[in-house]
Amino acid sequence: MLRQLELDIQNVTLEGKDVPVKLRVYDSLFVPMAKWAMLCAGNYRCVTETGAISINQAVHDNLGEAALIYSWVNEVAQNLGAEILDQVPFHKYAHAADNLLKPSSAARAIESGSLQIERVDKLVQTVAASIGMQNDELDRIVGVVDQRLLENHSTMLVS
Predict the structure, then answer these.
(1) For 111-129, how does the pLDDT look when each residue is reduced to its tens digit (9 = 90+)?
(2) Residue 92, domain member (yes or no)
(3) Are 131 and 76 in contact (CB under 8 A)?
(4) 154: which strand partners?
(5) What would the pLDDT profile of 92-101 be if each residue is shown by its tens digit?
């Protein structure tokens, strides 16, 4: 059924043009985990103690650090059963980040005062801990996001 839906969506056009969103069906259950590394190396690193930065800055201001967290998160996924072929190489992600000139949606939500956001950073931290893995940089990222959300809660209570 999913494969038929994928094909049906692929064949849809609007005013003679492809629709911008596609459904991709993969045989591996681990393909969605490929996003974990991208989110931890870029999106959640957009959240800083002093405000939001672009995904480009989060990745390229310290490319080595971004590569290390990216690699470590991919290692977590591999320890859970993902294949290397299920994952996007860091250099491809870094190249894509060249054009990501705005903060991530998570960072923008925090900046606008949101009290809750989707927490893939914390999910990865928890899953990693369950298999005996820990990373200081991921712990730092989780801590910064926790702190910024706590600040938003405090601001709301004062208002």
Answers:
(1) 999 999 999 999 999 999 9
(2) yes
(3) yes
(4) none
(5) 999 999 999 9
Instruction: Examine residue 17 and state whether it is found in any structural domain, yes or no.
Output: no
Residue 12 lies inside a defined structural domain of this protein = no
Q: Kindly state whether residue 6 falls inside one of the protein's structural domains.
A: no
Residue-number span of the structural domain to which 32 is assigned: 28-158
Kindly report the pTM of this predicted structure: 0.82
Q: How many domains does the chain have?
A: 1
Residue 31 has a pLDDT of: 64
DSSP state of 42: I
Alpha-carbon distance 93 to 60, whole Å? 11
Helix (H) or strand (E) holding 85: none
Sequential DSSP letters for 102-153: S--HHHHHHHTT-S----HHHHHHHHHHHTT---HHHHHHHHHHHHHHHHHH
In this structure, what CATH number is given to the domain that contains residue 152?
Answer: 1.10.1040
Biggest CA pair distance of the chain = 53
